[in-house]
Amino acid sequence: MTNILQLINQPRRKKLIKNRRGLKLFQNPQKKAVCLKILTMAPKKPNSANRRIAKVKINKQGNILTIKIIGEKHNLQQHSTILIKGGRARDLIGVHLKAIRGKYVLTGVLNRKTSRSLYGVKKI
């Protein structure tokens, strides 16, 4: 327990809370990136399927990040330009970002009827 003299000399300081997603995107909501490699990754224990991921590089900085490509099928290749946002893929270890569908090269999901805004599909 601190006494009054100790608190006068060194007042209590608030703990700093670090925002993991903000640091990777440099405090921006979305960021433009270039694909370096398209891969698949196996999820954590109870789940089993191959999830599509991509290694991307943010244009100005040299940071290489891992992102999840949401939805079924994609048309990404090496050197494709995509838009990325924050958002954790819970069953993939070390993946804290997601690709935005329907922007730049990454097209929307074909034949999508529900949750269209998440997957970049216009109303027909």
Gist of the model:
This protein is mainly β and 124 residues long.
Task: Characterise the protein shown here.
- By secondary structure, the chain is mainly beta.
- Helices cover 9% and strands 27% of the residues.
- It has helices spanning 4-9, 20-24; strands spanning 30-41, 51-58, 64-68, 81-86, 97-99.
- A five-stranded mixed barrel has the order 1-2-3-5-4.
- The relative contact order is 0.18.
Keywords:
124 residues; mainly beta; OB fold (Dihydrolipoamide Acetyltransferase, E2P); 5-stranded mixed barrel; 5 strands
* Name of the CATH first level of the domain at 20-99: Mainly Beta
- Total strands: the figure is 5
Category from helices, strands and their pairing: mainly beta
First-to-last CA distance: 67 Å
For the record, the CATH architecture of the domain at 20-99 stands as Beta Barrel
Rounded to an integer in angstroms, the radius of gyration calculated over CA atoms is: 20 Å
* Low-pLDDT segments, ≥5 res: none
What is the share of helical residues?
under 10%
Question: How would the blueprint of this fold be written?
Answer:
Blueprint: H1 4-9, H2 20-24, E1 30-41, E2 51-58, E3 64-68, E4 81-86, E5 97-99
Parallel strand pairs: 3-5
Antiparallel strand pairs: 1-2, 1-4, 2-3, 4-5
